[in-house]
Every structure is written in C-alpha cells, then in structure tokens.
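Q: I have 734 residues here and want to know how they pack in 3D. Can you give me a structure?
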Amino acid sequence: MKIIFKTITYLILLISILIIYLSLFGIETTKFNNQIQAKVKEINSNLSVELNEVKLILDPLKLNLNVKTVGPKIKNEDKFLDIQNIKTNIPLKSIFFNEFLIEQVEISTKSIEIESLISFAKSIYKIPELIVLNKLLKIKGYLIADIKLEFDEKGNLKDNYLVSGLVKEAKLKTLKNEDIDKINFFFKITKKDFIFENIQLRFNDYIFNSKNISAEKNQDYFLVNGNFQNDIVDLSKKDLDLLKDNLFSDTEFSKIRFSSNNNFSFKIDKKFRFKDQKIISKIKLHEAKILNNFNLKKIFPEVQNTISFLDNKINLEYKDDIFLMNGNGKVLLQKKEDLISYKYEKNDSKFIFENLLQIKQNPFHIELLNYKKNIDEDTIIKINGYRDKNKNISIKLASLNELENKIEIKDLHFDKNFRFIKFGTIDLDYLDKNNHKNSFRISRKKDNYRLDGVYFNADALIEKILFEDSDNNYFNKDFKIKIKIDNVRLDNEFQLKNLNGYLYFKNNKLFEGNLSGKFSDDKKMNFTVNNNGGKKITTFFIDYARPIVKRYKFIKGFDGGVLDFYSSKVDNISNSTLKIYDFKLNELPTLTKILTLASLQGIADILSGEGIRFEEFEMNFQNDADLMNINEIYAIGPAISVLMEGYVEKNKLISLRGTLVPATTINKAIGSIPVLGKILVGSKTGEGVFGVSFKIKGHPKNLDTSVNPIKTLTPRFIVRAVEKMKKKKQEESK
C-alpha cells in the first residue's frame, strides 16, 4: 500500500508539475502544423502558411490548449504577408477523440506596408472594390492589426470576426494629385461596423483631427458618419488659387484664415460611389481678404483696394444637393469697420440670397438720387432675392433705411447680362445731400410704368444725362413710363412745377417722349422726341438756360438766357441746332486767352469783371459716332461777335478756327455798305479796331490757341451780322 500510495503521490505530483509547466511555459512542437495549414486552406484555398514550431500552453480551467506560432508567413503565389503571431485554442477533448477542432484564432500582424497589404488582398480576392480603391487612391504607410476569428463546431468561420489595430504615418494621393499625409488613427472592424478613432492627418500641409468616424455596413452600401476639426489655418496661395478656380471665379482672395468643426455623413456603394452626402460645419473666419476688382467708388467713396472680412461666424450645411450657408461678422470695406450678415441657399433650380449691410461711420452715396448718408447715423441696406438656373436675377426686396430716409424696391428682375427686365414698385422718401425732400413712387402695370410724386431733386440726373454716355445697354425689353411730379428741382435756384408727360424706350433708346412743366413765374420747359419714317426729331426748350449751361465747368458766371435745341437723327447721324438768346458770361478761358493775345485787354477785363452780354448764340453741328463736325458757331453781342467752325473728336482732339471782331468794327464795316448800312447802322461812326482770326487745336486738356490780326471781314461774317441786324430791326418795329 505504501508503494502504491507513493506511486500515486509521485504520479499526481508529476502530473501537477507537468500541468504547471505546461500552463506557465508550455512546449514547442510541429505536431499541429499540418492541421493549421489545412485549416488556412479551408478558409481560403488560395492561401498557404509557413509555420515555425508551434508553442502549446495548457489552460487547465477551460480544458483547452492555447496554441501560438511566432513569425509565420501567409503566402499567395509569390506574395507574402509577415505575421507577428497566430494564436488559437484546441479543446483537450478534440485531441482525445483525434479531432482537430479550432474554436478561435487570433492573428497579430507586424508593421505591414499598406500598399503591400492591398496588393496581397487583391491577389486573393478579385473584387472590384479593391481594384477601384487602388486606382482612386495611391496609399502608403503602415498598419498593425489584431484579428479575431471564431469557428463553429463544424469548423466554419463565424461572422462575428473582429479586426482592430492602428494605422501610422500613412499617405495617400488622389486622382487630383492632392496629398493627404501624416495619417494616424486607431480602427476596429466587424462585419457590420468600421470604427476609426483619434484620427490625425495633414492635408496640403494643414492639420486636421477627428475623434470618431464610423461606417455601418448595410446590404448594398456603407453609411459613414464622423466629424473632424482644424485649428487655425492660413491658406497658401496655391489653395487660394484653387478656391478661385473651383468656386469663386470672379473673386481673387489674398488671404483666408479660419478654424472649423465639421460633422458629416454619406453612403458608399460597392463601386465606391458616394451618395446622400451631408455636411454640417461651424466655421470661424478669423480673416479673409479679397482684392477689390469691383466698381464701388461711386457708392463707397473711401473704398479700399482690399476688402476684409473679420471675425465672421459661419454655419454651413450640405444635404441632398442643397447647400445652406449663413453667417455674420465685420467687414472692412472702407476706412472703418461695418457689420454684415448673409444667408445663402443653393439647389438645383435656384441660388437664394439674403444680405444685410449695416454701414456705421463710413460714407455712402447714390449719385443718381443725390443721396448722401449722414456719417453719424447707421444705414441699413437689405437685398433679398435669387438667381435661377438660367442666371437671371430676381430681387424680391432691396431697401435702405436711415432714420426717416427710406428707399424700397420690390420684385426687381434682371437677365443674366444684368439688363433690366421689370420691377414691381420703387418707393423713395428721403432728404438728399442738399437737404431737399424727395418723395415719389414708380409702379408697374403690365409692361408699362407710372412715376407719381410730390418732390424730386433732378440735379444729379441732369448731370448724368448731359455728361455720361447714352449707349448703355440697360434694358431687356421696351417700355413706357408716364410721369407726373408736382415739384422737380433742377438745381438750388430753379424748380419746375407740375412736370407731366411720358417717355417711351425702344431697343435701349429713347424712342418717343413728351414732357412739359412750368416755373413759378409761368415760364416753361418743353421736351419732345418723335420718330417719323426712320427720322428721330428731338426738341428741347426752356425759358431758363442757366440750370443747363452752368453745368459745363469751363463756363463761369453764366446768367439769363433762353435755350432752344433742335436735332434730327437718321441712321445714327444727327444734325442739330442749339440756340441761346440774351445771356451774359463772366468767364470763358479760351475766349479770354483769344482777347488777351489779340491785345483786346479792355474787353478781356470786362469779361472777367461784370461780364460780356450776348444777344444770340447759335451752333449748328453734326454728330457721327465719336466725331462732332461743327458747321458753324455764331455769337453776337454789344461788345464782340464770334464766328467759328471745326470738329471735335471725343476725348482725342479739338480743332476749331474762327473770327472774333469787336462790335464797333462790325458797325463800321456794315455802315460802309451803301443804303443798307445807313438803314441798319444809321449815322453812327466810330474809330473801331481790326478783328482777329484764331485757331484752337489739341487735346481737350492741353489746347493750343493762336491769333492773327485781320483788316477785312469775310463776306460770311458780314452776311451773318447783316441777318442779325435785320432781325433786330424787324423786332423793334413790331
């Protein structure tokens, strides 16, 4: 019994030691290599595995053998994949029953090149996704992974696998040759989910971070959700140019500095096509600068060469091909900061916009309306509307508000070339820069319009009509406007009452019109345009020429005068006559120079002093494109008379020649004519002086004037003087 007891004791002790040894240290063997290799073949027939010795460690509690092989290689044809180790467990009972049953396999990889992994996967699985992925993205970098596989009792792979690990120092290049590098993240992959955590990457030298990105696998697609953030980014010139080329073709950025927090989701189908994309972003635009290529000087007098947006908070949302954006912040358009807010929506059919600009201590002008902002008051400008798929622009509301000043435009429509189509109403009620009241409305009925008002200061409008080109293509269609305004101010001195009539525009030209009004002393103004058989006749008569003539800057001290204008236009060539009666001049630089050069200083002194009076001025001229041919300019007065002709090339050259003669010389010359001289001049005699001929030539800003004395007057000059004297005698006899 003692022997038996000792034997059993030794046996138990030996078994215990063996169990302890197998549990702690295990043993190495090649006994299971063939079974493991066969199992790999069962998983995929294209695979083979090269194994070193396999280490067995006993798990006495679970009655399993834990199997571990170090440094194996998985092979497919000529491609290898290095593995750190493979772990599995074999139930002891399967060994006793001579079965090789694996319930679980754990594979830990070494640091593997991602490019090699994709290439290896392609060699095993000839699936389109891998081919497309390889073409779309050129991926470099390294991957370390732990793979857990479970098998059922029949040895079939279960679908509850788990792949986890990390990617480090990855780099990929897209089809557009955009580099994304410094990619580092942790990942976990199951049959239904892809989860990526603590992601860091660098895109075009900008660092981006993400806490979590997940992809949920459905039957036909992956649903991807995630977020990413970036700290303050200062875009490079390359990226600014890229932004201009792709999104803002008409805008040239010189600086963009921003930070952002972004959430996104989208679907990827089996062919790597993106669907149902959704992005929600919160952006802090610290600074953005664009070069001012816009013609804004007339409305923003102190506009800068660069427009800056400062501390703008922007919300972006993109969903189902609908783009939403809203934001607010500061804008440095002039010398001081203003406030701005904006809202945009872009879909398949429309680009909708809502903009608000709050102008604080900066100037703002509307020259056509003679409006000037009070520098100490805030002016709020709103523009709401949309642009359709044909690039036509519709302004639902455009408004300006400053204290009691209000300007409001509704339903304003332009075509893609920014030509006016139509509008609903325009309401204006404001004090202009001269503190004059303006109150009127323009309304539409079908394709015709009506202007009704109590007050309108037309000072700036007259300037625009006189001195700006009229060949502007503003209108998309023909229209007629009826006008009725109680008070129309021409300048600070003259005001029309009851301006009535109409204007009809055809092919962007004034085709027909009739306007009339009266001054407070019953003096009148008439303007007409008529078309007959291809001939356009324009007439303009006003009892007070001063509010028109004084606008020509080279004429100083113009007073009095009745203006009568007639023009006939055929085939874009116009023949016109301008007459002004009974007026006085104080300063005309060219005339002063002629008088000085001709040693007629006495008359020059009168001109610069009390002024020279003229009884009549008549100008006959022809306009053809940019060339004005002056057939004749004739001016006669008590002191001097002038006769001249020539031509004017717009903004290029002035060429005039003429004769200037003191009135005493004219009287003497005509008085010498038998019979007629006595009738026209009488017995009046005088010593008189000789006249001068003159030439004026050169660029409008650099004219050269020369004079030569003359002893006899041209027959043409005498004929014109005789005509004038006859006319005067007839008027006196009535």
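Q: Anything worth noting?
A: The two ends are 174 Å apart (CA to CA). The longest helix spans residues 2-24.
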